[in-house]
Amino acid sequence: MNIPELYELFKAHPSIQTDTRQLKPGDLFFALKGPNFDANSFAETSLNNGAEYAIIDDAHYHGNGKTILVDDVLTTLQELALFHRNQFTIPFLAITGSNGKTTTKELVHAVLSTRFKTYTTVGNLNNHIGIPLTLLSIGMDAEMAVIEMGANHVGEIASYCNFTLPDYGMINNVGKAHLEGFGSYEGVKKGKGELYDFLRAVEGTAFVMWDYDYLREMSQGIKKIVKYGTGGADVNGRIIGNDPYLGVEVDGMEIHTRLVGSYNLPNVLAAVAIGKYFKVADEKIVAALENYEPSNSRSQLINKDGNRIILDAYNANPSSMRLAIENFAALKESNKILVLGAMAELGEESREEHQAIVDLIRQFQWTDVVLVGGDFLKTASGFRVLANADDAAEWYRSANLKDACLLIKGSRSTKMEKVIA
Length: 421
Known about the structure:
It is built from 14 helices and 21 strands. It is globular and about 65 Å long. The chain has a nine-stranded mixed sheet, with helices on both faces. It has a six-stranded mixed sheet with strand order 16-17-21-18-19-20. It is of the alpha/beta class. It has three domains: 3-70, MurE/MurF, N-terminal domain (Udp-n-acetylmuramoylalanyl-d-glutamate--2,6- Diaminopimelate Ligase, Chain: A, domain 1, 3-Layer(aba) Sandwich), CATH 3.40.1390; 88-291, Mur-like, catalytic domain (UDP-N-acetylmuramoyl-L-alanine:D-glutamate ligase); 300-420, Protein-Tyrosine Phosphatase, Chain A (Alpha-Beta Complex).
C-alpha cells in the first residue's frame, strides 16, 4: 500500500495510536520498533482491542486482512505526516532551543489561539515519533500550526524540517544541553541552527531574540527576520516585577504573568512578537499571557506545608540550572533552600559542569542546600548530598520546614517532583 492509499484510510480513521493501552475503537495502530521493544507482536492485540488496521513491518504478523505490511513503520508514519502536511497552506511555525521551548510554545499557542484555530504539540511530543503524530493530529479546520522540535544530536532538526516544512521558526536560545549527543556547545549551535538553515533555504521568516549575538550571527541570510529583545528590536520589553511572578512591559503593554523567573522574559517577548506579527490585538495578547498558568513541573509556584515551593523539575542542563539559581538568589526571601537534582546527558563534561554549579551556589547565602544524585555525588561541595529523590523526599518530610522558600530543580531522570509528592 502506497502513502496516498494509506492516507485515504487515515482520512476515514483520523486517529493514530502507537500504544495498545491507549487504543480507542477505530484507531490506526502503528507498530513501532525500538531498542527494547517491537510492537509488531501487539498487532493482533491492537485489532482485538478495536483498532481498524495495524500497520506493521514484520511479515510474521501479517495475514488477517486488517494488517498493512510496509517496509518500515516509522518511515511510513513520517511520510504519512508529510503527505498530510502538504494538504495545508496555513503558516507552520517551528520552535526549538535549549531551554524553555515548551513554555514558549505554550505561550505562543495561547496568544495565537485568541484569533486563529491553532494546533500545537501536546506536552513534549517533540521527537521523531511525536512530531509526525502532532502533524497527523492537525484538523482540516486548522488556521495555524505550532510545532515544537527537540533534539539531542546533529541532523535531528534537519530531518524534522523535511516532513514539517515550516515557513516560520524560532530558536529561543542555545545552551549547554544534551552535550553527550551533540559533542560540544558548538555542536548544539550547529544542531539547533538546522532550523535556520531550512528557513534560509525556503525563504521563510525567523523570530530572533536580538539580545543574543550568537542568534544574530546564526540567522544571517534569512530573508525575513522579526526581532524581539530588550532594545533595538521590532518588539522591545523589560522586566517590571519578579517577586515571584514575572511582570513585563512590552511596547507600552503591561503584562503580569503567572510565570516564575526572570529567565522567562525572552519567552514572553517571543509570544508577543509572534502575536503582533500575525495581527493579534494587543488586549488579546495581554489576556492570553496573563491567563496562562504553567504546569507539568515547569516553574510552578506551589504553596505546601506552610512553604513556598518553586517546582522546576521537568528538565535541567547547565544553562537552565544557572539561570534558575541566579533568579532564586535574587528573590526577596529570607529562608531560601536549594534542592537540586543531577543534570543528565552531559557526557564527558558532566562532572565538571556539576562542580561549576556547586561553585555558583557558593556565591550566595542559603538556609540549606540539598544536592541529589548523579554527578553531584562526585563534587566537592560541603553541602548535604543525597543519593536520589526518594532520599530527598524523606529529608523534606523529616525537616518539618515552615515559612521556607524552596527551589526544586533537576533533569527529568531524577524525578525531583517526588520530593514533595
